[in-house]
Amino acid sequence: TANKTDIIEIGGLELDTQAKSLKVDGEPVKLTATELKILELLMKNAGRIFSAEEIYSKVWNEDAYAVENTVMVHISHIREKIEINPREPKYLKVVWGIGYKIEKI
């Protein structure tokens, strides 16, 4: 059983940081290890905008050089898995020219 501190809930998203599992509207969703790390970073800081470079350096633990594409691909995979309509995201938002964030719901 998870401690309440291990569970981050935002709207219909429920991330168990200890078990490394995600439920969307009660249904388990499989994410890669990298997708989980990105989602955990964004959910722990809901409402905060992260640049692609910032996400890359925090998740990959490396300096970020020309990483927009790498992060963008992972973000789009996460979006396909957690959004009802990935083209009109409810949770995972792009802030054009700045970065990405999870909406506080």
Textual characterization of the structure:
- This protein is α+β, with helices and mostly antiparallel strands and 105 residues long.
- It has helices at 33-44, 52-60, 68-82; strands at residues 7-10, 13-16, 21-24, 27-29, 92-95, 99-102.
- It has a single domain (4-102), classed as Arc Repressor Mutant, subunit A (Orthogonal Bundle).
- A 4-stranded antiparallel β-sheet has the order 1-2-3-4, with helices on one face. Strands 5-6 form a two-stranded antiparallel ribbon.
- The longest helix has 15 residues, at 68-82.
List keywords for this structure.
Arc Repressor Mutant, subunit A; 105 residues; two-stranded antiparallel ribbon; four-stranded antiparallel sheet; alpha+beta
